């Protein structure tokens, strides 16, 4: 049970003067009840609730001011809990003394009001629920029911979220035995007001009849709960919009640790775990520091959102950084520095979890991981030595140090332990990881420059087993960042954008995992990378390039250029030759090039291919770059990699291959088109030969090269069904839950303003376009696939929405909707969280036939419509469009000519086009100013 609350340093009367309020409410009660009319109890409760609500809101305002002044989240949580205590105390006093007095109470007319759960801990966030237990000696009585109802009605009328239960001591004990949630809530029970003897009886019986002898059961249940919770919230603690309460490394993890420690070690404060030998004094200090930081973030979050918001979303992160006093540094925004601190704290919470788990295992209060206890007994000690080094042992399938001096005796062991774990497929013992973290100072210049240490590290990195897992553990202990200081700079670094779902270090480690899966060939959706991987000459330099490709993030200069410079320093240390070092540096400098060209350039334009060939120069580099690009995109976040991007990379590779090989190609363009058509013929069952021949002839070669097989089959059936129904215009919707999008396919007669009309219709329906695949047929039809952000979680709801959007497109193409007027009303305001510098580039050297216009800016619904309408108004003909979205940034590329089919010439004409498009990008700013 929880100790009585501690007095705060600052006077509590700033928040709530209970003595003055007691007098005020007493006067109010007399005034209402003395009227002697029926129903005055209800009127009194209503007036009490109104007055207390005002006082409660004032108390929150004062608590927020104190939080801003002193910055202590725990203090704020204590104050808010104390405020709630005093309000419940006052309401209880009025209930038992004024509303339902009992001059000579019987033994059953006793009650204790007990705070349980988080409230019992004496800590509350501004939006926390109030969980209370009405504790009775026996069964419920009329008096007890009336008192409990009076208290609850006042709290409810105040607008508070109250969780409540009414139970006898016997009921509490019985239910705690069978329900782990109730057991946990009672573990933190705290008497608010009422019968102390009744509460003491609950405490004594809970310890004797529930807790004793059940530690293993409780620990297993709490750890299982944690696993289930993290599955729901996301297993990685490095997601860029973390859940402060329930996410990995959040407050709930700290609470779980304390519940376990309290249950097993029977302690009341974290500092008592030092005396129990669980934490060192420094680790206990880390626990308190993490707790205070997370409470600060959570309290600020609730105050900012005005509700119980637990997700640290982008639109709140910047304000949080300002409230907490973070400042920008060169290369890092204030919000990125705040989030880096957050993720470092989350990492510390993870370390503390491992420490407590190890301590429990020593006490046998936690099941041995991965092995049944019976098997462990059959192994006797469960330990064996490793033949490679006497400094390490295998303890229940986990690598551990033979003694506490293993790292001090030979600092190389700080690298060797990870090498041996990867080599033998071993997990890591928490004691070894704890000792490694304490021994980081042993990693000095001599160890970093040691040929043997670097050889072992490169073998870890390039392992064909599970390099991602081993590297992540190296990172979590701090060894990776200490061994490679440049990596240490990007540990827990967040990129403040919607494109990357993970911190920089987590992204790099996940990239290695993706590369490892490419090499194993167990993910067919990785496309051409799987086929090329066995053909590369030096897999080692590819792994190094993937690990280092974003290592210079957070610097004032371009991270690709700075990263290449870092690679030139590190690669010789890793044992690479000058030639291989140059290749790694080149890969890092160009790691965004292939993705950018594939997604935003016309791959049927000869100039695009020639320009890319001039960058890659030889086939081996292009292979390496494609594989790196695949691993990079795959590790950005869920749903970012897809078959369309895979197909674009494949097309760019095969289109460029003949150029850089002097005309020779293993698979020339015509052969690839023929192969794609043959595969589709095989897949399309039920079509006669003449119909297939006619259909194949309707698409240009570009379609066959840039459209993946799944979409080719869907398009063929869609077009056939449309024409069998005699329609000139048709739309089709399909949801893609994995990518979080909905695809709309439009088949219609082609005309210059078609894309603008489709984009306008989507905007008029409130739909947000994030990608578009635009193609035309040889018989003058357009086949456009538009990707929209998903609005509903359930497929049924999303399909209905997609049908409404499709209907809007058909009406717009039929001229039944006046798009300019409708879209003008739907232009939203710019998302507050992000700013993107608008940029418009016109280039005549990127294409032999067209002027290429690249537009980059903050994405929003209606943007594509505004851009295409403007191009049309400027008398520009859009030959092809390439629409891409990278989080909050839209990058739209248009290949255009004038009405005579010529490139756009003249500086004045270019300037006019640029000004007009910039006005579209700034339209949302104008809306905000209006």
TrEMBL record:
Top-level division of the source organism's lineage: Bacteria
Cofactor(s) annotated in UniProt: Mg(2+)
InterPro entries, sorted: ACT-like_dom_sf, ACT_dom, HD/PDEase_dom, HD_domain, NT_sf, PII_UdlTrfase/GS_AdlTrfase, UTase/UR
BP-aspect Gene Ontology terms: regulation of nitrogen utilization
UniProt keyword terms in alphabetical order: Hydrolase, Magnesium, Multifunctional enzyme, Nucleotidyltransferase, Repeat, Transferase
Domain notes: Has four distinct domains: an N-terminal nucleotidyltransferase (NT) domain responsible for UTase activity, a central HD domain that encodes UR activity, and two C-terminal ACT domains that seem to have a role in glutamine sensing.
Name used for this protein in its record: Bifunctional uridylyltransferase/uridylyl-removing enzyme
